[in-house]
Known about the structure:
Helix content: under 10%
Protein name: IS1 family transposase
Strand content: 35-45%
Number of domains: 1
Bound molecules: zinc ion
Order of helices and strands: EEEE
Number of helices: 0
Oligomer: single chain
Strand order of the largest sheet: 1-2-3-4
Distance between the termini: 19 Å
Domain InsA N-terminal zinc ribbon: 4-30
InterPro entries: InsA_N_dom_Znf (IPR003220)
Structural class: mainly beta
Pfam families: Zn_ribbon_InsA
Largest sheet: 4 strands, antiparallel
Amino acid sequence: xxxxxxxxxxxxxxxxxxxxxxxxxxxxxxxxxxxxxxxxxxxxx
Length: 45
Ligand SMILES: [Zn+2]
């Protein structure tokens, strides 16, 4: 399960793909958007 890098919430939903084809996610608690790479490293958008 993905965890929000900002508020550590688990309420993260998919939010389409970025321009570079990475999966984009969005936190439902703080509305922050972030992406993950193949190794599940979370990076700021
Ligand atoms: Zn959050």
